[in-house]
Each structure stands twice: as structure tokens, then as C-alpha cells.
Specification:
By secondary structure, the chain is an alpha+beta fold. The protein is built from 4 helices and 4 strands; from the N terminus they run βαβαββαα. It is globular.
Length: 110
Amino acid sequence: MKITFVKKILVDGNPCPKCADVEKKLRQSGNIDRIDEVLIADVRDPDSAGMQLANDLQVTRAPFFVVERDGDVEVFTVYFKFVKQVLGGKTNSTEEAAELLNDNPDLDYI
């Protein structure tokens, strides 16, 4: 299995806040060591490796993870889903819901 983590650099040269948060969580959990490759999607450079991969896979959000296993490629744009399904970690349903709402501002509380 190969895991690629793609994080975005914004127009002002700073990392996207969510990408930085996800990277921090990966480091704190010790899961950063399970990442095989880290690519940068620099919005100022459409030829950056991360931007090219995002275009190839038609991914419009960052950060995202690409998991290659047994010839199959799966893309995860939700960190907690990636942790649960790929890394076998436990997640908190409140954190999952907060991430889902943050990623989908068109959703509203019921």
C-alpha cells in the first residue's frame, strides 16, 4: 500500500489552515510515519506535483490522501474517514461531524 498526502499552499504562500491542522494531527498521532509521499499543491504553480495530481484525479479540495493498494486507487478528502478506513484508527463522531460541516458550508444543522 502506498499513501500520498497532498497539502495546499495558498496564493499568499502560506499553507492552507486545514492542511496544517491535518498534518499536525498526523504528527501527534504518530501516523505521519505511515505516509509514503507528501506532495504540495501550490495554487501559484499549476505544474506543481500536487496540482497535477489533483487535476488528474479531479479532486477540488485539500488536503487529500491517495491510497494505492492492489492496483486500486482511492481518494480521501475527509481526514477522519481516511484515519478510520485506511489507518485503522478510532475517531470521534463529534470531530467527524465538525469536519463534514466545515467542508460543506451549504449544510446546516437540523
